[in-house]
Specification:
The protein is an alpha/beta fold and 272 residues long. The chain is built from 10 helices and 12 strands.
């Protein structure tokens, strides 16, 4: 049984501490909703798990099946089955979308995927997320609309079938139909051994994908975990009840708003 275990994780950017002792465990077939106000460390946590060099881990540990994730490079983490669908995917001129996807698949295989098998799988996945096959021959995310970039991230997830898919506001900026497409793709993979860590500020996505657990992050820490009822309560009441019932003060950390995408870094590594 695979498990990702985060213990007492502290991380900073440009000398400003953002993660202040995160403890979280994610097990096989779990879908964890990561909740919290903007600017409290959610996106930073995902970026640190994936190895964004912008952030410095100053204390704590992340292990995947007992292996030290913090000692792995970005591409090594991807090969181990970690995947991050970013809120703002990078444009990568000169890198053809299909070639990137094929290289990413091959990085996790002992034998390279055959070209006909790859295009068969690509076509099937493209249909599921309503993406034209023409996008396969375009440069990665270059000239893509916001919705196309998000769908392309989900396309990558469908093809790679990672152990842990981390989705950072993958539904932001999408219309209702597009959110349904994304949710259907997630639900299809949920029937496998995959696990998910999902950030969203919209209850609709959570209603469609049915997380098994919710964790609330405030001021760089996980302050409360529970079942789906946490999602519903936050949707209706916000976060003020945490102060009243648990004495948790909620302050906004602007440093969290200045996250940097690792898309270009990951692409360069996977194409080596």
């Amino acid at each position: 049984m695979k498990e990702l275990i985060i213990k007492n994780l502290h991380a900073s950017v440009e000398g400003k501490e953002i993660l202040k002792g995160v403890n979280l465990e994610i097990h096989d077939k779990e879908m964890v909703a990561l909740l919290g106000p903007n600017g409290h460390g959610k996106s930073t946590l995902l970026a640190v798990i994936m190895g964004n060099p912008k952030y410095q881990v100053t204390e704590g540990s992340i292990t995947l099946d007992g292996e030290d994730v913090l000692k792995m490079k970005v591409d090594e983490r991807a090969k181990k089955g970690l995947f991050l669908a970013m809120q703002y995917p990078s444009e990568v001129p000169g890198v053809v979308n299909a070639e990137f996807l094929k290289a990413a698949i091959n990085a996790r295989r002992d034998n390279p995927i055959k070209i006909f098998e790859f295009y068969r799988e690509l076509e099937k996945a493209s249909q599921k997320v309503n993406i034209s096959m023409d996008m396969a021959n375009r440069f990665l995310n270059e000239g893509f609309s916001g919705g196309e970039k998000k769908r392309n991230e989900i396309l990558q997830m469908l093809l790679l079938k990672p152990y842990l898919a981390m989705l950072d506001e993958i539904d932001s900026g999408l219309d209702v139909d597009a959110i349904n497409v994304v949710a259907n793709a997630i639900n299809e993979l949920e029937s496998t051994d995959m696990s998910f860590l999902v950030i969203s500020h919209y209850a609709r996505l959570y209603q469609l994908i049915h997380p098994t657990r919710a964790a609330i992050m405030i001021n760089g820490k996980i302050v409360l975990e529970g079942d789906n009822s946490l999602i519903k309560r936050i949707d209706t009441e916000g976060y003020e009840w945490l102060r009243k019932e648990y004495g948790i003060k909620i302050t906004k950390d602007e440093a969290e708003m200045n996250t940097v995408s690792i898309g270009s870094c990951a692409v360069k590594n996977v194409l080596k």
